[in-house]
Amino acid sequence: MKRLFHPGLVLLAILLALLPFTFGNSYYYDVAVRIAMNAVIVIGLNLLIGYAGQISLGHAGFIGIGAYATGILTTHAGWHPLAAMAAGAAVSALLAVLIARPIFKLKGHYLAMATLGLGIIISIIINNEGQWTGGPDGMSVPTLSLFGIDISGETRWYGLMAGLLLFSVWASLNLIDSPFGRALRALHGSEVASQVVGVDVVRYKVAIFTLSAVFASIMGSLSAHYIGFLTPGVAGFFHSIELVTMVVVGGMASVFGSVVGAAILTMLPQLLATLEGWETVAFGGILILTMIFLPRGLVPTLAAKFGRKA
Questions:
Q1: What is the pLDDT of residue 310?
Q2: Which residues of the chain are under the pLDDT cut of 70?
Q3: Around Cβ 196, how many Cβ atoms within 10 Å?
Q4: What pLDDT does residue 305 have?
Q5: Domain positions in the chain
Q6: pTM recorded for the entire structure
Q7: How far apart are CA 9 and CA 169, in angstroms?
Q8: Percent of the chain with pLDDT over 90
Q9: Could you report the per-residue pLDDT of 50-104, keeping only the tens digit for each?
Q10: CA neighbours within 13 Å on the CB side: how many for 235?
Q11: Residues 57, 112: contact at Cβ < 8 Å?
């Protein structure tokens, strides 16, 4: 509970409470909801990349699993959305546990290529199983219902996602300050030294990979209900690169950097809509410039700068 009143968390809560008063129409609500969804995914991914030091270039695959699990089970099997969401999270967690041990025996670019391959396999399956997923044409997803209340309309979705974002930030801050979080930072610094002091490196890698996969799967399920329609692009390679770029730009090993990175790069395509397909080039340019001039990311760099001045 020591992180309940973290200054950054309080500031974020105030910001989320005041933002709706500045929204002129439903478009701004839509962007805010998408930012919150991406932010929760990126927080989980940052725990894996920023704190544990393990790369993943196929994380959108878990978003696809969650999205299509809830879409298929609610549409074809008549499941309740919460049960379908839980099933998607369970499948993602099981897959993460099964593949994490062999994958995390790899290092460097071999690890990156293995996670990339995982994402591509999931995307191919979604494309090919057209009788269930609709294939390249996509599929419709029914409205989300929680405890007898249909979550429809921008205000309800904004309230739900704002609450989930605050909870994710709070939980992540406490996780980082726990013995589990200290073990993650230790294995990021040196796996050999971590093993010497008794850290079960493999177990912690598997655990954080599974946790980040569950974050992605749940948000994938929610985004499916929010948008109401699914296409295979949700599990595509470019989506994975977007997520990694959000981590890098906002700041690796920074929970609030994850939120900032998600906000900047979720709004960016809206600003670049007139460029007609050049968004990919813009993302690549931002990633390159960030790695050159802000290698620690935006939030950690600014925090260090103003901290020194203080």
A1: 41
A2: 1-5, 272-277, 279, 307-310
A3: 9
A4: 79
A5: 7-12+28-234
A6: 0.93
A7: 7
A8: 66
A9: 999 898 999 999 999 999 999 999 999 999 999 999 999 999 999 999 999 888 8
A10: 33
A11: yes
* pLDDT of amino acid 1: 46
Give me the pLDDT at residue 104, please.
85
Rg (alpha carbons) of the chain, rounded to whole number: 19
DSSP string, the chain: -TTTT-HHHHHHHHHHHHGGGG--SHHHHHHHHHHHHHHHHHHHHHIIIIIT----S-THHHHHHHHHHHHHHHHTS---HHHHHHHHHHHHHHHHHHHHHHHTT--HHHHHHHHHHHHHHHHHHHHH-HHHH-GGG-EE-PPEEETTEEE-SHHHHHHHHHHHHHHHHHHHHHHHHSHHHHHHHHHHH-HHHHHHTT--HHHHHHHHHHHHHHHHHHHHHHHHHHHSEE-GGGGSHHHHHHHHHHHHHH-TT-HHHHHHHHHHHHHHHHHTGGGSSTHHHHHHHHHHHHHHH-TT-HHHHHHHHHHHH-
Q: Which two tokens stand for residue 252?
A: 């690796």
Residue count of the chain = 310
CA separation for the pair 92, 65 (Å, rounded): 7
